[in-house]
Amino acid sequence: MSSLVLHSLSVLADSSDVRALLVFTVVLLAVRWLLRTPDNLPPGPVGWPVIGSALQLKGKPCHQEFTNLARQYGKIFSLYLGTSLVVVLNDAASIQEALIKQADRFSGRKVPESVRLCFPMKGSILFGTGEPWQAVRRFTVGAMRNLGVGKNSIALRINEEARILCDSFEEHGGKPFNPLTLVSSAVSNVICQMSFGHRYDYDNATFVRIQDNLRKRMAFGRTSLVNYLPLLFYTPLYKELRELDEERRRDMQAVVYEHLATFDPKHIRDMIDLFFCEVQQRDGCTKAKFPFTETDVERLIHDLFGAGTDTSANMLMWVILTMTKYPEVQEKMHEELDRVVGCGRQPAWADRPNLPYCEAVLLELLRYRPTGALAVPHTAAHRTDLMGFNIPKDTMVLVNIFAAHHDPAYWENPGQFRPERFLSADGKEVVKPTHSSYLPFGIGRRVCAGEQLARMEFFLFTVTLLQRFTFTVPETDPPPSMDGVFEITLSPAPFRVCATPRHA
Ligand code: HEM
């Protein structure tokens, strides 16, 4: 009987009718997949089954491509990345509506698989949600204040780091070099000072390893296949990522255990000590207020490195590149610095109100090339309506800060780099935008927790570098592009620079 069935099937399989039926079934399944989208989603491109619009975006900078798609489909559009539904917000109105007016619904996070598989979520400020996230965020913002962020004490530490960075630039003797590693080391050291209580020499083996590890893990980034097919994580393809994670864990644990062994609550050294204090105080109140143990600090410190190194380093890389592209801007900054600060002392945080042109350049760079161009992915906690569209529960919501910063409804000639847009007519005062289409640090409950520190670093590193050097691109190199590369943050493509000392 069974051989009869098999025989009949093989005859059928040979027939062209069956082949046509198979093709029809596959087409039907594909069409069904395409049409399975819930009702009234924001409009957007129709992607392919399983991969969605991933191929359309491959190799193109996402922030740019999303800005183009917004011109085609509207300020709020949807698309599939792999099998995940993504809604992208591209203007001030939709961003305000989601992150301010409907903050309860849109303040959660969509955690990429590459992150979820590597890290415990407990203690995460970047990817945590609900009460544990509120507790760790409240702690972090308070701890930063406690450690001097916004005050002169941290400004002095940043300044020391800026001076060391300049000395390292000077060692190149005006010859071409790629400044990225040195700049990353300098901003990393600001996080080290705050978290570990000390800085590292740039060639210290542990420091080099911590930085390399972060850089390599970030390279797996948002576009990594594992985000769409999580099982790949356990295959040889992702062996390197698993090993990097082990290495990171060992390094961070070593710092935390060393702190635990020498902890003295009467002599607080840094963020880790403050975390231990908070855990101990929790015994006096309810555990729900701070539901962590001492070792959970490892996760927070990791997030601060992740959120605070690449972003700040890339903003400084944009400064250096911009100086080479716009020598007239560099000249005006030099002139202002020479007039206000001179060359006898390092610029200080207190000089900021007297350096309006330098400040306007920094504000314009944060608009023109915002390194956090797509923020950190948010998610819809419930099914909800947004600007008349249906947003299903758990949809990934991306905030296109770059598009808001280039929206012609708010910015005149948004594609032009023009610091004067942030200056009064006489050039003597900084004029900040009064509209909501300027949000380099995000807005709402998930606004950058390190904004104040980032602004201090951005200002102090920039003015110290500009006081000491003139930046040019080596004549033999092709002119670097201002377009930028988007991985997790928006950064300039690699370039070399000559840093010529200005004062003997
Ligand atoms: C110029 C430098 C920086 C820029 C442009 C920047 C920008 C941003 C943006 C756009 C977000 C996402 C907001 C959202 O998801 O809606 C963010 C989040 C965050 N940033 Fe920054 N950032 C910078 C530097 C820093 C530094 C130095 C630190 C800390 C040391 C830091 C800590 C964080 C943290 C912890 C979050 C997550 C907040 C949360 O989810 O509650 N950032 N940042």
UniProtKB/TrEMBL annotation:
Protein keywords: Endoplasmic reticulum, Heme, Iron, Lipid-binding, Membrane, Metal-binding, Microsome, Monooxygenase, Oxidoreductase
GO cellular component: endoplasmic reticulum membrane
Keyword Metal-binding: yes
Keyword Cell wall biogenesis/degradation: no
Membrane topology: Peripheral membrane protein
PROSITE patterns according to UniProt: CYTOCHROME_P450
Enzyme Commission code(s) on record: 1.14.14.16
GO MF: heme binding; iron ion binding; lipid binding; steroid 17-alpha-monooxygenase activity; steroid 21-monooxygenase activity
Gene3D superfamilies cross-referenced by the UniProt entry: Cytochrome P450
BP-aspect Gene Ontology terms: hormone biosynthetic process; lipid biosynthetic process; progesterone metabolic process
List of residues binding heme: C448
Cofactors required: heme
First-level EC class: oxidoreductase
Location of this chain's protein in the cell: Endomembrane system; Endoplasmic reticulum membrane; Microsome membrane
UniProt family annotation: Belongs to the cytochrome P450 family.
Annotated PANTHER family: STEROID 17-ALPHA-HYDROXYLASE/17,20 LYASE (PTHR24289), STEROID 17-ALPHA-HYDROXYLASE_17,20 LYASE (PTHR24289:SF1)
Protein name per UniProt: Steroid 21-hydroxylase
Species name: Patiria miniata (Bat star)
